[in-house]
Automatic annotation (TrEMBL):
It comes from the Bacteria. Keywords: Cytoplasm, DNA-binding, Transcription, Transcription regulation. Signal peptide: none annotated. SMART domains: HTH_ARAC (SM00342). One of its GO terms (molecular function) is DNA-binding transcription factor activity. Residues 199-297 form the HTH araC/xylS-type domain. This is HTH araC/xylS-type domain-containing protein. Residues 1-20 are annotated as: Disordered.
Amino acid sequence: MIAVGREFDAGATDEKSDSLNMEDRLPSVRLTVLHAEAYQFPSSWMFPPTAIPYSIARIVTGGTGIFIVDGEQFPVLLGDVALIPEGATLECRSTSVNFSFISIRFTTSASIAGRDFLSEHLGLQRITPNCAETDLLHHFHELESGWAASGQGRAFLLAGHLNLIIAALSARPGGANLPGKVKKNLILPSANALDPRIESIVELLAGNPRTNPNIKALCAQAHLSESALRRLFKGQMGKTISEYHRDLRMMAAARELFLTNRKVGEIAHDFGYHDANYFARLFHGVFGIPPTAYRRLTRQG
């Protein structure tokens, strides 16, 4: 970490330090399965652009389709595995009569500046082809069937298969290269590209999405004047502090909508919005659909 007050070189990285930090943190990373299900759709099926508040791993079991992740199109066919990182905007289309896949929704316990740990540091490919004849398909099937099972060991069984999927994807050609050099073509921008003062602010905001940011406290944290902080934050993040925090709030609220059956008004109140209609308008502005429609769509697939 570069000390506050020193000149920051966005291009400078300590790859050995990055690799060691990554290796140290990997044993403590916990993967939690949120849902597992097999889907089959006709040629007319479309899933509208939706920001996803969890990570997704999918293996295509039949037909062909297109996954559009953050505006980039990925044609997929039998045996392809897709990894969609938390926070990405996902759109899907079927391009054959019967398009089917097994979809696993999950979260990771570790994050860097609020970003997904697996995407940031493992550098897994969006699409890994030719997995139909490997153990990957077996683990997807076991996860899908195990989701409906019961028993005290169910959570461990699900997490075990998900860990094996991630490990297998990492070991395939073009996957992660651990514990060697950190990959540069990552799904999300590297935390090393951030000025450490802004990185500390991002971490603070990401850890407190329910609390309104105190600009004076943020200035003290970054050792910057208010004008300098606002200018540097906008330049580094592409958004103002309030816009960035609003998006964090909406993402956290979206997770609540998916994981719970709580009323929209209750969730809005938890995040500091006493007017549910105002919350719904903000949510629509970020995700393009109202909260109730978001809950329905994300639970469908």
